[in-house]
């Protein structure tokens, strides 16, 4: 309709997925007559950075502290004859949508702002959103259809240290703390290679931090890898690919003890190889793989 007042609005929103649920906010009755859920977010204040705006809106609408990625998608909706603030306007909405996440131990969402455009916040099954069971704004399905887990590839170096032989053989392992992925499981001492760090230097550093022992790094036994989707310790849903360089190594300096404080290692110990083989010790696949390659499995 020609002659209607033009109104353009720029908003910032986030797709926050945890396992098979998505965080949504319910629009207030003065915005929509029936029940309607949308992504947490809202309009940018004049001069406000979009990333700052979406974090502010998430806090106000859900009570949660969130993080968002570096990149975003932009969606455009032109509504040439719609009602805004009690009058008919030619509206143009630009929505900047980020990948977002909250901590795994975050409390249940609750609305903090009073008298705003949001009256409820909750986690909803993604399947219910996509099949229409949950009434959502068009932006939600559009953004979900484009959403992909954050792709993360990590290169790490590990040490396979075995002492003794036969039924008396033991392997040096570390137990993952609550700060790491697969908390409670045992793995080889080692970890991520810092930028520019030689892999063997990474092994020496990680073994020292995680077991308190000095080691001598030998030959590269094999390269192991894992690929899976899941929620990272940060709360971000990731498409994760881990590359593990496994080196033969020997250690000296006494019994293992964790040297680093508040890290991803809770315990270090010599574990009977037979306990790994019979499954009585819960280990990551890289441990079994390394033992098999070295002929210790």
Automatic annotation (TrEMBL):
Pfam family, one: NUDIX
InterPro entries in UniProt: Nudix_hydrolase, NUDIX_hydrolase-like_dom_sf, NUDIX_hydrolase_CS, NUDIX_hydrolase_dom
GO molecular function terms noted in the UniProt entry: hydrolase activity
EC number(s) on file: 3.6.-.-
Domain Nudix hydrolase intervals: 5-148, 151-297
EC main group: hydrolase
Keyword tags: Hydrolase
Family listed: Belongs to the Nudix hydrolase family.
Protein name, UniProt field: NUDIX hydrolase
